[in-house]
């Protein structure tokens, strides 16, 4: 039996809600990361500075592969990430909060997998986000009175540029609800590493073509602060439910193993 350890991927300022905080220094390609370890309502929590040691590292420079490896090395079993997004639909206005349940991957990351060379495998992504964590987040937002949308499809792009109006129309027609550049390929690496992963998406702007003028980054910074406050509040509720629970009690639909190793099968086919 393994006690669950919660990793928070998003802003380093999330550590402010923890108690008994310890700072762990970890080397990375962008410098020494300051990882915060502590507790919230008795739940062990690791806060990872997704944007690197020199905030803010642009999204396209974030090494999600390395970040997930580091989280795993600190014993994290469950991850709740946050992502600021643009809405692809007028029916999802600025200020909306979504607990994502699907994604469309439009990123062009060179190695969007841990399975390289002969150590390859295939992972089920029918439901890319952990159903238990999603359920806890939806219930948590209900408890704190935030009208979160309980599902949503994330269109992942590389950034840092904003989308064209045509791209926003295309993503919406394909089923996307919001667009952003941090959740992918992070979500993929997390599942391949055997971590249970869910995301809270905050809408900070309408997509190109859905609002009157051009998009400017400063316009959404204030809205981001509001989202971070509600995420801190929901984490207070979620950790109360999670504290002391064990991995075997999670009761989700995530694949039970990190990946289904197929090398032996492939070698059998090739001879
Ligand atoms: Zn799960």
Q: What is the CATH homology-level superfamily? A: Nucleoside phosphorylase domain
What is the name of the CATH class? Answer: Alpha Beta
Count of helical regions = 6
Q: How many separate structural domains?
A: 1
Bound molecules: zinc ion
> What is the residue-mean pLDDT, rounded to a whole number?
87
Q: In percent terms, what proportion of residues is strand? A: 25-35%
Please report the distance between the alpha carbons of the first and last residues.
Answer: 41 Å
Shape: globular
Give the SSE order as H and E letters: EEEEHEEEEHEHEHEHEH
Largest sheet: 10 strands, mixed
Determine the structural class based on helices, strands and strand pairing. Answer: alpha/beta
Explained architecture:
This protein has 271 residues and is α/β, with parallel strands linked by helices. It has helices spanning 64-73, 131-144, 165-173, 186-192, 217-242, 263-270; strands at 6-10, 19-28, 31-40, 43-49, 78-87, 97-99, 102-105, 121-122, 153-156, 178-180, 196-206, 260-261. The chain has one domain (6-264): Rossmann fold, CATH 3.40.50.1580. The chain contains six helices and twelve strands. Strands 1, 2, 3, 4, 5, 6, 7, 9, 10 and 11 form a ten-stranded mixed sheet that branches. Strands 8-12 form a two-stranded antiparallel sheet. Strand 3 (31-40) and strand 4 form a beta hairpin. Helix 2 (131-144) packs across helix 5 (217-242). The radius of gyration is 18 Å and the shape is globular. The protein starts with 5 loop residues before the first strand and ends with a helix. 38% of the residues are buried.
